[in-house]
Design goal:
Elements lengths: L1 H4 L1 H8 L2 H33 L2 H8 L1 H29 L3 H36 L4 H16 L1 H16 L4 H24 L3 H26 L15 H33 L3 H37 L3 H28 L1 H6 L5 H14 L7 H12 L4 H22 L6 H5 L1 H19 L2 H8 L2
């Protein structure tokens, strides 16, 4: 029974490193692809069937504000994923069980808080971002409906994180595929059939999130492994909640800093008008190809490092970092080529407006060639967090990406008020922060500190 129970864990802690990384990576990648398809479908349908104003409303300021709130909780919940992966790797069954129930309680409580904030302050936040009047009402309507479904969304994300923490990256993929198909069908029904516009997209998203949450909760309740969930036992364990927050809060703060810097950038983009907002939205969806792959590498290396750290296999962690960096570098160069080569075709998926396409291509030429400068942030940051070191990566990201991006937007963009100047903040800050991470990884003695913390 023990051998069966920890079969997936043994693969991560004992198998051939590159094979196990890929074995874990591809389900996450496909899952992220369907998550991206999930979001992109919304943008494509409203852009094609409602108009560029609707495209800007769904993917511009509204998306940035949603990411601010959801991103904080996602970062916070990553602490649960790290703790569970370490306990699972160390075969501490009772600790795994208690952490699962604390994590799900955190999802429900956090979702309730975010829902209230989203419903009460959406309109005021959009006005504070200088959202153009022609999309303000649509953006506010989209956000309010979206936040009604935020608890199921957080339950799905937390449940999927639990499954991945124990080495199961396949079932979250299956659930996301079914949810994505449901979302596409409902998008067409509500937008093209019932003519509900951006509200229809939001309703479709909310219903799809409910379905994905039910599926992941059912999976956790039906397993016979140590991470089985019992509804009656969903409650906070103070000690484990403290551990989750200790690791997850820096990641949540980091995500918030990202989002705040992106809010400032979005506000700058908003000042160029609806065409530029629509182009920024469309490019964000194209750019998502890169982010979904890097995110999959990040989740893979975090779980890989966490379980091997729990098992005490530190040399295996370092080897996995070198292999994962090589994979990520190859992928980033390939994606830069694909995105730059097919740019005009990609933009035509979202809109036929020539001005929007032209603006978007200008953004793409600035950002896409520099994808490789980001990979050290994702891989090295994921590794250190997987071992329990979350504070210093947050500080480095806060200074190198968030603070520098804000300074650039406020100090340099006014001197040369062009969209390309705004876009350049991304490769600039990626490069600076990658240097920070490389130096810290090689010289920071982070692994020794993590080992002392668990003694």
């Amino acid at each position: 029974m023990k051998t069966h129970r920890y079969k997936l864990s043994n693969q991560i802690t004992e198998g051939v490193i590159w094979k196990q990384l890929l074995f874990f990576f591809f389900p996450i990648l496909f899952g992220t692809f369907f998550q991206q398809l999930y979001n992109t479908t919304d943008a494509v349908i409203v852009g094609k069937f409602v108009g560029k104003e609707a495209l800007a409303a769904v993917g511009g300021p509204a998306a940035t504000l949603i990411n601010l709130l959801i991103g904080f909780f996602t970062g916070l919940s990553s602490g649960a994923t790290v703790i569970i992966s370490q306990f699972y790797g160390a075969k501490k069954e009772e600790d795994v069980k208690n952490t699962v129930h604390t994590a799900m309680a955190l999802s429900i409580a956090g979702g309730a808080v975010i829902m209230v904030f989203g419903l009460l302050f959406s309109g005021a936040a959009l006005r504070a971002m200088n959202t153009p009047e022609d999309i303000l009402k649509m953006s506010a309507s989209y956000m309010r409906v979206y936040f009604l479904g935020v608890i199921p969304s957080l339950l799905y994300n937390m449940g999927s994180g639990i499954l991945r923490a124990v080495g199961d990256s396949k079932r979250p993929l299956y659930f996301l595929i079914l949810s994505c198909i449901t979302n596409i069908i409902l998008d067409f029904l509500f937008v093209t059939g019932l003519k509900m516009g951006v509200v229809g997209v939001a309703v479709a998203t909310t219903l799809s999130q409910v379905i994905s949450a039910l599926m992941v909760c059912a999976a956790l309740m039906r397993t016979e492994d140590s991470y089985k969930m019992y509804i009656k036992e969903i409650r906070f364990s103070p000690i484990l909640l403290h551990s989750i927050i200790r690791i997850g809060l820096p990641a949540g703060i980091q995500s918030t800093m990202y989002s705040l810097s992106n809010l400032i950038i979005q506000s700058s983009v908003n000042s160029f008008g609806t065409d530029t907002i629509a182009a920024w939205t469309a490019y964000g969806k194209i750019d998502g190809i890169f982010w979904m792959i890097m995110g999959a590498y990040g989740v893979s290396i975090t779980t890989f490092a966490g379980q091997n750290f729990g098992a005490g296999k530190y040399d295996r962690i370092k080897k996995s970092v070198r292999i994962c960096l090589g994979m990520a570098a190859f992928t980033s160069f390939l994606l830069s080529f694909i995105v730059l080569t097919g740019g005009r075709t990609f933009f035509r998926l979202f809109t036929d407006d020539p001005q929007v396409v032209s603006i978007g291509l200008g953004m793409m030429r600035v950002i896409a060639p520099s994808y490789v400068t980001f990979i050290c942030i994702e891989i090295l940051g994921g590794t250190t967090r997987g071992c329990g070191d979350a504070v210093f990566p947050t500080v480095m990201t806060g200074i190198g990406i968030c603070a520098l991006r804000v300074v650039w937007t406020w100090a340099v963009v006014p001197l040369r008020p062009e969209v390309s100047t705004v876009a350049f903040s991304y490769p600039l800050t990626w490069t600076v922060t990658s240097v920070f991470f490389i130096v810290y990884y090689l010289k920071g003695n982070w692994l020794k500190r993590c080992r002392r913390m668990v003694r």
